[in-house]
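Running log. JK asked me to keep both predictions on one page so they can be read side by side. First protein, sequence followed by its tokens:
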Amino acid sequence: MRVVICATVAASLLAACQTEPSANLTPEENPPNVTVDASTDFALPTSDNDPYVWLEEVEGEKALDWVRAQNERTLGELQADPLYDHYYTDALDVLTSDERIPYGSIRDGMVYNFWQDDTNVRGLWRRTPLESYATDNPEWETIVDFDKLAEEEGKNWVYKGANCFQPEGGKWLCMVSLSDGGKDAVIQREFDLETKTFVEGGFVTPEAKQGIAWVDENTVLIGTDWGEGTVTQSGYPFIVKRWTRGTPLSDAVEVVRGEVTDVGVWPAIIEKEDGTRLQMAVESDTFFTSTYWWLPDGEDEKVQLPIPPKSTPQGVYQGKLLVTLEQDWAPEGQPVAFKSGDLVAFELDPFLETRALPAVELVFSPDESQAVNGVAIAKGAALLSLQENVVGKVLTLEPGSGGWTTSEIVLPGTGQSGIAFADKDVDTVFLNYEGFLTPDSLLRYDVSSGEVSPLKSLPAKFDTEGLKVEQFFATSTDGTRIPYFIIHKEDMPLDGTTPTLLYGYGGFQVSMNPSYSAVRGRLWLEEGGAYVLANIRGGGEFGPQWHQAGLKGKRQIIYDDFIAVGEDLIARGVTSSEHLGIMGGSNGGLLMGAMMVQRPDLWNAIVIQVPLLDMLRYHKLLAGASWVDEYGDPDVPEERAFLEKISPYQNFDPAADYLTPLFLTSTKDDRVHPGHARKMAHLFELANKPFYYYENIDGGHSAAANQKETARRSALEYTYLNRRLVPTAGR
């Protein structure tokens, strides 16, 4: 069985060394047309008044004029650096190389893949037989050419995925999601995989943040923007309707209605092992709590799944519904109790018959060094993705008379591993493996034989000779040990001179795991820089508790963790404040903003990507209201009081000696509002402080609509980092 939730939800963190003052920057480090004078008086934003809200008008003429002026200034400076062309060429070579693993999914013996390169900028959706896929040169058949489609329709189409369904004995039908410019808002159009054409007169939706789930060949569940007053404060749907083929969307019948205060309500399907599809709706009451509603056929009343609010159905194996827990749970009337992070199960059919919770059993309980990443169901196997001390493992799960047992699948080494593809009707599972210095490899796991065999692997895309990976622990302010990885030259001198880039996120239970990045390798590691990945709290590296330790008013501990890692790097002699730079995006962009205002002395470069920065208005901008359970609600006085202390935008000090930051955002980002970066950068401008700012006019939350734009963004980032952190003699 599979659980399909069809939604777009934002996911999404010292040695007292003095940073070189901005006034002493060398001319090439000082952005043009920006004088360095902190004496200018101007109106600062307060908790009650923000004079710069005009920059929140996403496509307002005045705001875009400001954006274009900043883009011209920043691009003119950074692209003129001799390093830029070198970095851009290397990044584009990596991003558009044919030497990439074409990850995909299997349907009826065919592997489906989405592919972009320098010729197919918007990408191809294509397929090949599994036997051909296993060869070095698969024979690909194009399903949709999105460059051609965009040109024919005069749209800036960005492919956002396909939700496919095969009725018993029928042909595959898909709802293809297309975004104009990379936004989260999409249109969906029905597509016939057999004829490779969009279905004439088929299901088509207007643009919205939406979700859709197939009930049968002629019926779908859909949650979308139904008109005024039908989306939540976060901009997501809270009404799900059942829509029948051949009828207008306006005639769809409502089946579930949530509240405007919900994050959103999404259609879903639970597919049992016999192919029965249970209609579901997921009411996301908050970002971290949900109510799962079963919609029985022929009944008007919905039935709640008897699982706790902080839990997630993962699939059904041998008739048992598997559920991961993000909170402690003592099922009523049962002599058992489970802890947050456990994987549990119960028989599904007895619940469907009686509507009462059957006996719940423990499947797997992680220890303090472990965290459950997820569960996947294949034909004849249940698989558990696990991380242990931030290193990935994959286990098989099997129920028995004495309880559930596990068996570890042997992988190539110590790094990040996961389940790339599994399906209840397919006995082939794709596993992926990678490390900081080990390129991606795709493994084929045969359920029937238990054999793991290499299917595809990448050649090295940067020179790893002489590089080394180590894991260290820093001690945070409360005594907690914070792990971090560092990749560096084996002969790195411990004299504080190594240019070092520290990356962090710290939020939403998102784990930061070892990964292979050829762009990072070529543009930074090959150049002699060290790269550090901080596993700070707020993430999911050690389970739900690691995340929940930094929620709302406890968030400062996340920032303390990150500072502790920076200080530990300096104490070890790896680097110094002069040569230490930091980078983060989205929630990690908020982390960067906090680090800029809290510890400007500790770093000499900050790359702030698609950030949140105004924490007193974030809940009023785009999807921001959905994150109040992560950050706190500015409309609740005690939570607002804490946010006032940590909000980078409100804590900007025109007299402070800030370093020169690089802000990056996207006009088309309809998840994190570009106004955050715009307004913070504008404060630097008004205070006559040097800064760089680049806003991609297209691109969505990733800030890149295509690989060429991704290459440009990477080249800008590493040109900036090199200028700030590498001694002049080393450039």
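And the second, directly underneath as requested:
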Amino acid sequence: MRVVFPFTAIVDQERMKRALVLCAIYPQIGGVLIRGERGTAKSTAARALAALLPEIDVVADCPFSCDPHQPATWCTLCRERVERGETLPVARRKTRFVDLPVSATEDRVVGTLDIERAIQKGERRFEPGVLAMANRGLLYVDEVNLLDDHIVDVLLDAAAMGVNVVEREGISFQHPARFILVGTMNPEEGDLRPQLLDRFALCVNVEGVRDPAQRAEILRRNLAFEQDPEGFRAEWEPYERQLSEEIAAARERLPHVVHTPRDLLLIAGLVSSLGVDGHRADLVILKTARAYAAFKGRDQITEEDILLAAELALPHRLKRRPFDEDGHLTLEQLAERMEQVRRQVEGNAPSQPASSPEGGTPKKAQRTDGELRDRSRPVGEESAPLQRQTVTRQEGVWWEGGKPVPIGETFRVKRLDTPKDRRERRVGGRRSVTRSARKRGRYIWARPSPGQADDLAFDATLRAAAPHQIERDRSRTALAIHPEDYHRKVRVRRAANLILFVVDASWSMAVAERMEATKGAILSLLTDAYQRRDRVGLIVFQKDRARLVLPPTSSVDLAKKALEDIPVGGKTPLSAGLLLAYEVLCREMLLRPEVRPLMILLTDGAGNVSMSELPPQEEAHRIADLFRERGIPCVVINMEHAAFDQGLAQALADHLGAPCYTLHELKAESLYSTVRSALG
């Protein structure tokens, strides 16, 4: 059996550990999303939490791990067994840790019905999925941002409702799905849509430990664990057992934790004052505050509980535009806002305040993560103070002659579409229509699929079986369907594009007015790509070379940072920029054939640097021909002033086989013309 690194041995990361413990106490909070850079113990913490959780009683042979002491939560199978007079066998086991792979399909997650058995014998037979296995356990989803949106939605629905409902062709089945949902992600790989991000109850942003002493302690503990995993875990077992017992005690105390009407007003006022949409945040703060009060041994929530809960429930719900910096609220900022809300509540709706165990209502909440931090160090070891970091916002600038060039006006770009293609693709998006290889998308027709009941098209299958009913044996069924009658659904959906921005940053583009407009166009197009879940990359060419400033990624934060401090000036190596773009797109097409490429070139077309003996314009045109021959869709945005336009950008677009737009046309209300390519 694999030995797991102890939860209490994780150095620092107190906010992350607090969020995980609270979700373990009260899974109905709705799960926690942990966002952070690589190597910050995200996966380690999730696995370690499951290892220290208390053992649970389960129905021994139930596929859903039903609680034998809670009949109201039993699955359909356990209910039917009891109704038949059976006695449910009871077993005791550790809490399960269920890992959901990124490649999981919807049927693998929610389970499926045996369609063939349902048709031929009229029996309802359910094949459990990941949600069934995770019931009353911990469901861990690494790289949750890379999952299909629909899969994430199903997970969050089950986590919030505590039940999984599977419906297929008019037949339904449901079972309990109460689990601790932990999702982790690296923001550099792209973010979740705001609608899905809001569905995660709690969110924690983690960073690598900066303090040298703590980093050295991380090294020491990891080396000790690698050399002797069992011995290291035995050393930390007292701390693990103590925390496990406290979680179990908090679970028992949780139903008895109460709140006052004043507490509800404080929560509602705090959330409302921050302009958070909807009411989910209010409910999450209340649930989290109750869990924290239970963990601290109290039977009534305090303002401290509310503030600590708000610190986990609000930052990812604050309104921000796609390229704004992540919101971050410190406890001090929340306490100041709470002070304002308290004065309003006490002035307009006097009520008896909820007192803390020490008496009185604290004006400033003090971070009390020390209890968890103390457990993460051997007895006698000093606790290092938290290093607070102030997040400052900086605007991206392009430099011209030592002076910053401001961002030009952004606008809502015309819709950029690409034609439907016939390849089956597994990566979803919102721009290009393509055939789907998964059970997602619009059902448009059916095709024969003998012997394969996967994603069965009932209408086509019934039509195929109908002519043979006279000759087939129907003594045991009303309709005789054989495997050779099966037809599979063919679906279409929108697939994601890889959009590579290629930007001319030479002197010919360095006039401040044009550069402002260029930057505004790029930010507008990047926003459009963000909204449609496209992967984006950025190439800049100037002087004598081209640079891949941003390798293809779905992270809009990285895209924004890549636009900061880009130098402007020098000659125009247009050929180098096109060649690098061609190489990047060909490599991406080889590595990720499921994603459709698109190059957006922002230039005036005035190339004046060659990589060979050919004239600059001829060389650029020859490289542009490669895009058309390879069938890579392109769009040219002519940044030349209309009064001085020499037609260079249009000539380049002709060789690329691409439409050419001006900024004025880009802002028009009408839709983009469809990008013509040989992919259809």
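Observation for JK regarding the second prediction: Residues 229-253 form the longest helix (25 residues).
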